[in-house]
């Protein structure tokens, strides 16, 4: 529980391990027992056949909402499924209270198909700034943690994104065509050029982790839902990477960003990707 005079930094120093424990327990209780065991009645569509939700998503989010809210009284929780039920919940990101941003199963499509490429994402933000994040891939038992100003770590080992190898094509994970407008598709076509190797992204959280590990050079995403990006953007920043929108400005958690935007292993790569996204078709 946060004390009345305690800062976010002091809260994190005392309770980061408790957040980690909550994320692991949510996955153990509600996600992994359903992995590769989902019944048909446990899967629903939201906006269409490519936008799925399962009982694991809903129940893990409820678990995290209760647990994280109790850890930090006065905080609010913005979860993907809660916002789907009531879009007004999203406005808390722009409010005064500390906010937990939760994606219970990032990569639901992979989860439904029995692919281990999914994760649980939790970020703690205040006044539009992400202060800490947790990225947990339960099928792989990998946990990445970042605290602003203190670095990024995967299972206790510090992450350093480094820079792409000179002369090698840039590997860039991009928004799937199912989730892009015609204008965004045209912008992403700028990446189909010599020296760049674009591919469709999987779980956004795991793509960010790959950038932070130096295994992927950049992302190019065309949507700005905070639960997909908050945790990973801090992870990349704290590993030494950078992010920028298609106008060259840093991505804003509170929205209104020029899209697509990129997160990259270093600032030079971010600028290169932005230039390609901004190039005339």
TrEMBL record:
Q: What class of enzyme is it?
A: hydrolase
Q: Which Gene3D superfamilies match?
A: 3.40.190.80, Fructose-1,6-Bisphosphatase, subunit A, domain 1
- Catalytic activity reported: a myo-inositol phosphate + H2O = myo-inositol + phosphate
Q: Which InterPro entries match?
A: Inositol_monoP_metal-BS (IPR020583), Inositol_monophosphatase-like (IPR000760), Inositol_monophosphatase_CS (IPR020550)
Q: Which UniProt keywords apply?
A: Hydrolase, Magnesium, Metal-binding
Pfam families, per database record: Inositol_P (PF00459)
Q: What is its EC number?
A: 3.1.3.25
Q: What is this protein called?
A: inositol-phosphate phosphatase
Species, as recorded: Streptomyces anandii
């Amino acid at each position: 529980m946060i004390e009345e005079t305690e800062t976010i930094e002091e809260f994190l120093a005392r309770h980061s391990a408790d957040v980690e424990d909550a994320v692991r327990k949510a996955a153990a209780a509600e996600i992994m027992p359903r992995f590769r065991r989902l019944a048909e009645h446990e899967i629903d569509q939201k906006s269409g056949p490519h936008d799925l939700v399962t009982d694991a998503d809903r129940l893990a989010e409820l678990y995290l909402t209760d647990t994280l809210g109790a850890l930090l009284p006065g905080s609010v929780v913005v979860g993907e499924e809660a916002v789907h039920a009531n879009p007004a919940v999203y406005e808390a990101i722009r409010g005064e209270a500390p906010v937990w941003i939760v994606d219970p199963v990032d990569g639901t499509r992979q989860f439904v198909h029995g692919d281990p490429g999914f994760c649980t994402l939790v970020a703690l933000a205040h006044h539009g700034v992400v202060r800490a994040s947790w990225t947990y891939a339960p099928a792989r038992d990998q946990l990445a943690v970042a605290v602003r100003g203190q670095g990024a770590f995967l299972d206790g080992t510090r992450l350093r994104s480094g820079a792409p190898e000179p002369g090698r094509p840039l590997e860039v994970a991009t928004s799937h065509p199912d989730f892009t407008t015609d204008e965004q598709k045209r912008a992403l076509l700028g990446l189909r050029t010599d020296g760049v190797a674009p591919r469709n992204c999987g779980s956004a959280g795991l793509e960010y982790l790959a950038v932070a590990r130096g295994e992927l050079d950049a992302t190019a995403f065309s949507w700005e839902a905070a639960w997909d990006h908050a945790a990973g953007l801090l992870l990349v920043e704290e590993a030494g990477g950078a992010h920028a929108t298609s106008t060259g400005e840093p991505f804003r958690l509170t929205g209104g960003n020029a899209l697509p935007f990129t997160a990259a292993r270093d600032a030079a790569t971010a600028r290169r990707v932005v230039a390609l996204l901004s190039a005339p078709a």
